[in-house]
Structure prediction request, 86 residues.
Amino acid sequence: MNCTEFLANLTDYFDAKTAATLRSELERHMGGCNHCHVTVNTTRQTIEIYRNDELYELPDAIRTQLHQAVLAKCAESKRKKKQTKA
Prediction:
């Protein structure tokens, strides 16, 4: 299993909709892949925050950095769309 296959099954993994053999394969991959392990932990923490209606205050510097990153991604996406239309 590679990371792309792992990510394609992530929603079903969290929803416990994977067969036991696939779940075992996903967990084996996660055990050897730090990137996917971090992705699962981060996603799990995000889900818990939303389930608990917890508010999480970001420091101003991080909030600004995150905002700039989102705007940059949006601008990049718009540029790519314009290029494909041309």
Observations:
- The radius of gyration is 17 Å.
- The chain is about 80% helix and 0% strand.
